[in-house]
Design a protein that fits this description.
The chain is α+β, with helices and mostly antiparallel strands. Helix content is 30%, strand content 25%. The protein is elongated, with a radius of gyration of 24 Å. It starts with 24 loop residues before the first helix and ends with a helix.
Amino acid sequence: MPTQLSEHTEPYLEPINAIAAPTSNSEAQESDADSNNNKIDPNTIILAQALTDTAISWRIHNCKISKKTITQDMPLLFLYHYDSLDDSIKQAYPLTPVLLAQFNTPMTAAAAAKLIGIADDLLVSPWHVKVVGSLVIFSEALQLAVRLHWTNTGKSTQQIYTQSAEEAVTAAFKDWQFFGRIDVLYKNGKQTLVSIDEASDDDEQLLAIDTSADYQYLPATHALAVIAKLEADKAELPWFETAILERLE
């Protein structure tokens, strides 16, 4: 079934036996993956694979913003102000020992212009953009809901030089990303749900997720594994971006 939107829109570990050891890291990882799959019942739901399965009828709801910063008033290191100048202005106002000493000093565009000795309008102040939000993706057939978090940047803010705040937000979300914690709500007692983190120790690679009436926090290493899978397949999962962009409007 095609994926539906709201109005707002691994693997197989052959047991290690007496055969010769793998000759490379990639072969070792493939062997580990095969081994994990051998431990999993075919009817089991693997979380990362399910979330990126375009054949599942997923719904997205409760897409919301928890933090939003869009301003030109925040200070920026002097070196960023100076680098934003036209080359002709840089030639007319070359770096001096006094300016070099201020390179890592945070300041406003007006303060930087005064320090350089130029008119305020010659130094454009960037937009500082940081938007953080969450959304819930839900499959009625699987009785599975997952809360994910998203943002435009992992830094304190993203600096963007545009004419308007709207243009800055559009530019910022050309490369948005999932991050942080993941919460899972699973009510399907007929199928086992697991998460796989192949980077963990052997005894921690496979995580069984119990059925519950409440959301459960996914351990950090497994959350990172799920996020990596979502990011790798994001181009084939356009409903996420659709829901986020609609919320930003």
